[in-house]
Prior knowledge:
By secondary structure, this protein is an alpha+beta fold. Helix content is 25%, strand content 24%. It contains 12 helices and 19 strands.
Amino acid sequence: MLTAARNEMLTRVGPGTPMGELLRRYWQPIAGASELDSNPIKTVRLMGEDLVLYRDRGGRYGLIDRHCPHRRADMAYGWVEDTGIRCSYHGWLVDQTGRCLEQPYEDTTSPKPSKAGCETKAYPVKECAGLLFAYLGPLPAPELPVWEPFTWRNGFREIVLADVPCNWFQCQENSIDPVHFEWMHDNWGARMRGADANVAPKHLKLKFEAFEHGFVYKRVREGQSEEDRYWTVGRVALWPNGFYLGSHFEWRVPVDDENTLSVAWFFMRVPKGREPYVQERVPTWVSPLQDETGRFITSHVINQDIVAWAGQGRIADRTKEHLRSSDIGITMMRGRFFEELEAMAAGKEPGGIIRSANEAQCIALPNMARELNTEGLTLAEFDKDPILRQRLKEFRHHYGQPAEVRREFVEAMGIAG
Length: 417
Ligand code: FES
Ligand SMILES: [Fe+2]
């Protein structure tokens, strides 16, 4: 249980709020680069700030104030040029650093046009593994962490976005919540398929460990032992707002206090014999969350998670909860946030921020699926493993995979559609 004031501290993300300032110190994934292929301009709202993301014709990414520095027109209705983005109202041209490059009327009529003071808000953007990351904190920006899976080759990657109607922190608490797998994904999943009993293997034992880049949770369920990789390796609640499960990442990126962009990045190594496989473009798609009646879609794993997150309310009221031993990880995570917030208030840099380019290059995280993704399997071996066999058959994580993404996947894997 938390006091209302502590809950506010964890959940408010606007500029100037303690948590907003903390999260701004980390690069945040905000889009897939492939989203800008058909339209090079995308509106984004991040931690309460309305912005425009674009790729100019020179290939530079920009993330600037949605409103033009001249008289506040919507830059989303402008267009990109060789350098920068131009407002469609009076033609001002702005670049990715926020500098105003052109003011057409002034440039035509004034002998010495000056643009001093007309800069607009601009944040750095970097591309990595098909994702676009933005940094909204004080400069100089830290290094962008290149997690080991971003360096893996011979894999099919895809990015799935979802607009989740609730605060980011309840989504992130789900990253350190092993027991929900048994109930939400296994038992509830089985009930939806007609089962009449709770048949999922029970959790018998949990362990949570802290490290620089977050927490590892470990578990033993019925039918498993301490020799199992779920116990010896575990899964990572990635600091500060991610989740890493071995072959995919999920981030819960705050849009504002009451909305979250779920960004998931998936990797699937092609079967042995299909290498070398080079993916030219990482597809990005948006998973719909509700059906035509407005009810949440419950058929897919992350869609189920979203039912839990959104069901806790726009901002979960943590004054009314009852934490038990299954929630030790939740308490640890909140504790680290409070510690880091205090440290920041005392002028210190929060943890997990990387300033050395070398160190940022390929960061390994605990991973139960490393060999699968680096060595690969034959198609026959895929077939022997029930989970992997299922992964080839259909995309189970998010509802709504577009047919063309499925086609590209089938082609990459060398399986019949
Ligand atoms: S408002 Fe954008 S150029 Fe005038
Ligand atoms: Fe889940």
